[in-house]
Specification:
Blueprint (H helix, E strand, L loop, with lengths): L3 E5 L5 H10 L3 E5 L3 H9 L3 E2 L3 H5 L4 E4 L4 H15 L5 E4 L5 H13 L3 E4 L2 E2 L1 H7 L2 E6 L2 H14 E8 L3 H29 L4 H8 L7 H4 L23 H17 L5 H17 L8 H9 L2
Parallel strand pairs: 1-2, 1-4, 2-3, 4-5, 5-6, 8-9
Antiparallel strand pairs: 7-8
Helix pairs in contact: 1-6, 4-5, 8-11, 8-12, 8-13, 11-12
The protein binds nicotinamide-adenine-dinucleotide.
């Protein structure tokens, strides 16, 4: 663990991810724009530096965990790459557009470095516990050199293919999740209208061909799955704003690649409206309440 890591973006996810690297004995130089994030990082054993470029200087590996592709590309194009020693491995863990991820990789390579996309699922709880799932788009050799580090922050690390393909896996998975959560929620509301109890629908569908994760692990109505956010006033979990973001990326990719993903595009519209109307802070499974409200209007 004598690698030096530059970690840029110490927010909800990046903060605990960097903390786990420091706890595992890595030298982590961290930077964020928000002073409170830097104070927490110091408490977590991260060496706070004055800029993103300072985090990259002298690092073997630079990890970014930022809100969106424009933040990642903004840094890559704004002097970060020049600040690093040749051959540095740049790992972007943010969830961003596939096209942006490929551009980030190409910029890193053009600057004499190595680049990969390694978006995650598992949320803040997974980041804190070090049990994230990583979906990696990278050359084989780069993947192998990053693997030990990713295994500190995550419990499951999958090499999905070449650069950009990690992001592809992330948005495809979340498109399945968004569409299936809407489908499950529509079925519960329709069942209610037809005099079918939530528990009875759950008992049937969870053992039949309607079975899926949105139903059996994350049931959007209170009762059947005690650990689902529905039993906790729809506190996230996975906030609707984040589902909106990920479906927006999926919709972009559908359009950009000529895929007639009618349900994926519709799911993006539904979560965008829900985000706008509610502020997006509730768990994404609260979509069931929006459907029920419309049903009763
Ligand atoms: P966040 O907003 O909490 O953290 C992002 C951090 O980046 C902020 O602290 C911000 O100050 C910092 N930042 C922005 N621009 C910067 C710059 N130029 N230099 C340094 N720091 C900068 O977001 P988050 O929840 O940690 O999510 C980060 C990424 O992970 C997003 O792409 C998100 O989609 C993805 N993601 C989030 C979750 C989740 O549950 N929160 C789960 C999976 C993936």
């Amino acid at each position: 663990a004598n690698l030096r890591i530059g970690f840029i973006g110490l927010g909800h996810m990046g903060g605990p991810m960097a903390a786990n690297l420091a706890k595992a004995g890595y030298q982590v130089n961290g930077f964020d724009l928000v002073p409170a994030a830097l104070e927490q990082a110091t408490r977590d054993g991260i060496t706070v530096v004055a800029s993103a470029a300072d985090a990259a200087a002298g690092a073997d590996i630079v990890i970014t965990m930022l809100p969106s592709g424009k933040h990642v590309l903004g840094l890559y194009e704004g002097g970060l790459l020049e600040a690093a020693a040749p051959g540095t491995l740049f790992i972007d863990c943010s969830t961003i557009d596939v096209a942006d991820a490929r551009q980030a990789h190409d910029l890193a390579v053009k600057a004499g470095h190595r680049g990969m996309d390694a978006p995650v699922s598992g949320g803040v709880a997974g980041a804190t516990a070090g049990t994230l799932a990583f979906m990696v788009g990278a050359d084989e050799a780069d993947f192998e050199s990053a693997r030990p580090l990713l295994e500190v922050m995550g419990a499951k690390v999958v090499h999905c293919g070449a650069s950009g393909v990690g992001q592809a896996a992330k948005i495809c998975n979340n498109m399945i999740l968004g569409v299936s959560m809407i489908a499950i929620s529509e079925a519960f509301v329709l069942g209610e209208k037809l005099g079918l109890s939530n528990q009875a629908l759950f008992d049937v569908a969870s053992n039949a061909s309607g079975q899926c994760w949105a139903l059996t692990s994350y049931c959007p109505v209170p009762g059947p799955v005690p650990t689902s956010p529905a039993n906790n006033d729809y506190q996230p979990g996975f906030a609707a704003a984040l589902m909106d973001k990920d479906l927006g990326l999926a919709a972009n990719a559908l359009r950009g690649n000529g895929v007639p993903g009618e349900l994926g595009l519709r799911a993006a519209e539904i979560y965008s409206r829900f985000h706008e109307e509610t502020g997006g802070t509730l768990d994404f499974s609260a979509i069931v309440n929006d459907i029920r409200r419309r049903a009763n209007e």
